[in-house]
Specification:
This protein is an alpha/beta fold. The protein has 12 helices and 10 strands. The strands form 2 sheets. Strands 9-8-7-6-5-4-3-10 form an 8-stranded parallel β-sheet, covered by helices on one side. Strands 1-2 form a two-stranded antiparallel sheet. α2 crosses α3, α4 packs across α5 and α9 crosses α10. It is globular. The two termini are 26 Å apart.
């Protein structure tokens, strides 16, 4: 059954951040969404009670003619135009955009300053190490990010794309040495990509009371049900990202998501995100190219999947667990 609209907010442990249980992904800004479309999506998201906006310096370097920073620039312009910087929890990431694709102190500091300039702000609320740099000791990385928190340019730190073992070492070291402890992790997690989080990252998050904000929550759009074959991906902007999900087991998952959605008179995207919330994540990250795509994402917290729904989704996605 579908409950009424939920107004409960989620909190990020050890911060004062609250939001509706959806993080708005900014990877579309300046890529599949133009400036005005991006502004409209952001406006609609905050009207719905959202505050958490996720971007990265590398968005969207993969698009033809882009150099990275496009998403941050649009988000910064929007906050400046709306005068609402204090009402938005800005999360950005460094570590993937050359020449700032290392995790030594000098590189990370320069990358942060470049992000702050594009975002038109003097601080980032949630600053992610976007990927590990195994040439730099975890202890040194933790010290670097602690220094940035102490500088006031970063309020809290978070981790993405480290191995569970290296991530665990960061948490343990920061805790033992009284450094800034990450308040969130960002793993890939969805119905067709379960094993890494459930077996590796979730135990770390639970042990250290860290928020979990999964990326590719909709498997690059695959779990929306609009891609039923490789042919459906031809010429699409997300072809490269979604291609790897198209398989016989993956298509069976999509079919079950669509079945559950029809039973609830809901969108498949709503079901896929509601499943993640039922698994205990703090808030999934999902992006909307247009305002029309946003309601299906925002509806996820108010969709109550039955025990039978969850059992069916768990079973069909078991090959990925």
């Amino acid at each position: 059954m579908t409950a009424g609209v939920q107004t409960d907010l989620v909190s990020v442990p050890r911060t004062d951040f609250t939001s509706v249980p959806l993080v708005l992904g900014g990877n579309t800004f300046g890529w599949t969404s133009g400036r005005e479309e991006s502004f409209a999506v952001l406006d609609a998201y905050v009207r719905a009670g959202g505050t958490l906006v996720d971007t990265a310096d590398v968005y969207s370097v993969w698009a033809e003619g882009h150099t990275g920073g496009e998403s941050e620039t649009i988000l910064g312009d929007w906050m400046a135009a709306r005068g609402n910087r204090d009402d938005v929890v800005v999360a950005t990431k460094v570590g993937m955009l050359p020449p700032f694709d290392k995790q030594d102190r000098g590189t990370v500091t320069r990358a942060l300053d470049a992000s702050l300039k594009r975002l038109r702000t003097d601080h980032v609320d949630l600053f992610y190490s976007h990927q590990d740099d195994e040439n730099v000791a975890i202890e040194d990385q933790a010290a670097t990010y602690d220094t940035l928190v102490r500088s006031g340019k970063v309020r809290h730190i978070a981790l993405s794309n480290h191995t569970p073992e290296r991530m665990l070492r960061w948490f343990e070291h920061a805790t033992a040495e009284n450094l800034a402890v990450p308040v969130a992790i960002q793993p890939q997690y969805n119905l067709v990509f379960r094993k890494d989080h459930e077996q590796g990252y979730r135990p770390v998050a639970e042990r250290f009371d860290a928020a979990v904000f999964p990326y590719f929550s909709l498997a690059a759009g695959f779990l929306t049900g609009k891609y039923r074959s490789l042919a459906d991906l031809e010429g699409r902007a997300r072809q490269g990202q979604a291609h790897g999900y198209v398989s016989e087991p993956g298509l069976k998952v999509v079919a079950e998501v669509v079945r559950v959605a029809e039973a609830h008179a809901a969108e498949p995207a709503t079901v896929a995100l509601a499943w993640l919330l039922a698994k205990g994540v703090t808030a999934p990250i999902a992006s909307a190219r247009t305002v029309e795509q946003l309601p299906a994402l925002l509806a996820a917290p108010s969709l109550r999947l039955t025990e039978a729904d969850l059992a069916a989704l768990d079973a069909v996605s078991q090959p990925f667990a």
